[in-house]
Amino acid sequence: MADLRIFSYLPNPRVWEATIAGRFAGVEIEIKGAPAKELKSWLWDYNAAPVASYEWHAYSPLARTGRAGLAGERLFKTEAFMDAHPFGNVPAAFAPSGKIGIFESNSIMRAVARLSKTNFPLYGHDAYETSRIDSFLDVSLNFGRDAQIYLLALSDGTLDAAIHTRAQEAFAFYASGLEQALSPARQVLVGNNISLADICFATELALFMNEHARGRQLEDKGLSKILHRGVRDEYPRMISHFDRLLTHEHFAADLGPYVDKLSAAAA
Description:
By secondary structure, this protein is α/β, with parallel strands linked by helices. The protein folds into two domains: 4-114, Glutaredoxin; 127-266, Glutathione S-transferase Yfyf (Class Pi), Chain A, domain 2 (Up-down Bundle). The chain has helices spanning 13-25, 56-59, 79-84, 105-114, 127-156, 161-181, 196-208, 215-220, 231-234, 236-247, 249-266, and strands at 4-9, 29-34, 42-44, 49-50, 63-65, 74-77, 92-94, 101-103.
């Protein structure tokens, strides 16, 4: 039996926070899910599974209205799912019993580190390093919130100049801090080893690269790409760190094909 089961839309870099951490920590993780548009025909539960259209009427008492990326969709969520995940969102992680839910991707990743079966210091060597890692995770969460609003607006056609400006400012703040943290020539964000801070950074930047697939929408609105060609010159340490992490086997397994596809879109 897996140490942790995660249900989510796929592909999802925020799920890969946990799977990357799991490779370092020797923690077995089971992933269940489908592309976001298909999740409206799934029963959301520890034993999540697709529901045939002729069965939808039987599950109608469980129907709830989706939010965020699935806003307005009718979604079938069991009471057990809502007990475990009171906010009703994915990614949704479960303990092996199926009764304890862990929500928010950074918290799921922390759970993996706490379940570690190896001596790799993913979550730092002491309380101070652990707290510094938490600091990076909190800053990443703030950036991720603005990034999600921006990417969803790009996807559904509601992007305007105000949303673009806010995302641009959020990225500049995030990237500048990371650039400083990696100065003058640090190889990782905290301590001397890859940590949860590096994993979170890599997945957030990979997710933000979805902007590359929406270049036409930006052009139509007279807006410029935030991840423009000059970003590497503006934040060389941050981008070099991202490139380094992508070559690591524990990152490459998930992020490699995803980043390659989005990089091709940029080209």
